[in-house]
Amino acid sequence: MAITVAQLVEDFGFSVHSGKKGLPTEISNSQLTRPGIELAGLFDFFEHDRVQIFGSKEVTFFNRLDEEDQEIRVDMLFRKSPPTFIFSKHIDIPDVFLRKGDEYAIPVLKSQLRTSELFSSLYQYLLGKLAPRKSVHGTLVDINGVGVIIRGKSGIGKSEVALELVRRGHQLVADDRVDIFEREVGHIVGEAPDLLKEHLEIRGIGIVNVVRLFGASAYRRNKEVMLIVELVAWQEDTDYDRLGLDQRTERFFDTEIPLVEIPITAARSVPSLVEVAAMNTRLRHLGTDMAKDFTLAVSHEIERKAKNKKKAK
User: Fold this and answer.
1) What is the pairing mode between strands 255-264 and 222-233?
2) Annotated active-site positions, please?
């Protein structure tokens, strides 16, 4: 996986001050570096394949060097061919960086974010863009903060359920195809492919844009996946879980995601059932398991009655 410096500039609104010929350069490492010891002349540990960030500390130290050392250190930085140099807000880019940027065709960029905010935002962005990805068939909806992938056989009504959930005030993330990646173990993030963003496919109606229908609040660019809901046709001879003790999961990368199976009939309000499943998942994340609480209460009641019978004898 890789992205270009040009894409980075477009997505973050960076201004390009030199090295424009290097905008097609690819970035393949999600880690970032703030050169410090390199400015002091030690390049033994320089991570040359990373985006280089310059904040007030780096530039203040750099300005204390004499002109000869500045020229030597910057030339050594550029000789290693990092993908780009980015200077944070309120930092004046030294002239030597501008000259070397054009000389080596390495973009020198300026951000309108402060150093800590730039570093954090850029790291999360690159982590998401460069992480291994896979696509899953389904519809991803944000239900009160819980990312739910709704799956099922073609024609079972996934998009129709999502449309009703959006109409109730929840947010669509992706329909039909969800691209997922592991931000870190335990955290799977899903988003829509560029072509499908903001859109739902409703059989009999066609493609609808939820932002134009319901406003900007009806859509979310990405969301952490916390639950998978599998919609299945009701089968009379199937023994469905009635207490919620059967906690199934599905593995994505190195992360297990809870999975619930909801049998549907014409009489059942599927959007309401998906909402309840999402709220139940939220409660479990907060440490409350209603199914276990119920069975525990039943067990206590049985024990209490058994003790009372013994006392009565």
Assistant:
1) parallel
2) 158, 176, 242
DSSP 219: B
Query: CA 21 → CA 6, 29, 68, 311, distances in Å?
Result: 10, 21, 27, 90
Q: What share of the chain is helix, strand, coil (3-state, %, to 5)?
A: 40, 30, 35
Nearest Cα residue to 148 out of 168, 165, 129: 165
- Give the whole-angstrom CA distance, residue 274 versus residue 167: 14
Write down the H helix ranges in 83-232.
95-104, 115-130, 158-167, 210-214
User: What is the rounded distance in angstroms from the CA atom of residue 235 to the CA atom of residue 55?
Assistant: 63
Q: What is the pTM of this model?
A: 0.74
Q: What is the pLDDT of residues 69-124, one digit of tens each?
A: 999 999 999 999 999 999 999 899 999 999 999 999 999 999 999 999 999 999 98
Task: Judge contact between 210 and 199, C-beta under 8 A.
Answer: yes
Domain 134-293, CATH homologous superfamily name and number = P-loop containing nucleotide triphosphate hydrolases (3.40.50.300)
Cα-trace Rg, the chain: 27
The pair of three-digit structure tokens given for residue 161, joined into one six-digit string:
């359920």
Residue 172: CB partners within 8 Å, gap ≥ 6? 139, 140, 141, 142, 162, 166, 198, 200, 210, 218, 219, 220
246: Cβ contacts below 8 Å, ≥ 6 apart: none
Cβ neighbours of 89 (radius 10 Å): 14
Indicate the domain borders of the chain. 3-130, 134-293
Q: Which residues contact 24 (CB under 8 A, 6 or more apart)?
A: 4, 5, 6
- CA atoms of 144 and 165, how far apart (whole Å): 11
Which CATH number applies to 3-130?
3.40.1390.20
